Amino acid sequence: MTTALGTDPKFLKDNFKFAMRRYDIDPQVGQSFYCYTDSCHSQPISVDGVMAATIFLKNKSAVERASKLGWTEATKDVFRSILNKRKPGRPRKSQTKD
User: Fold this and answer.
1) pTM of the model
2) In-domain check, residue 58
């Protein structure tokens, strides 16, 4: 499975420590984020059915700057969502016994 980034979700988890989201802007229009330690472009990613602009960051100081600019820290929710999505066509296990 690939994310909107076109990257394996495990790659994201291994290479980025933080995920930030903005709900007040159009997720389909890429937003640029720059600071001394990180620079990136937002991607539209759906978490629990809510599409939002999402950026992936490596450094805590970048998270603090993004937070001051209106981004919301959502690391646990984003990584949980992208790592737990199933591949298309893969059958789900039945929760009930027949």
Assistant:
1) 0.74
2) yes
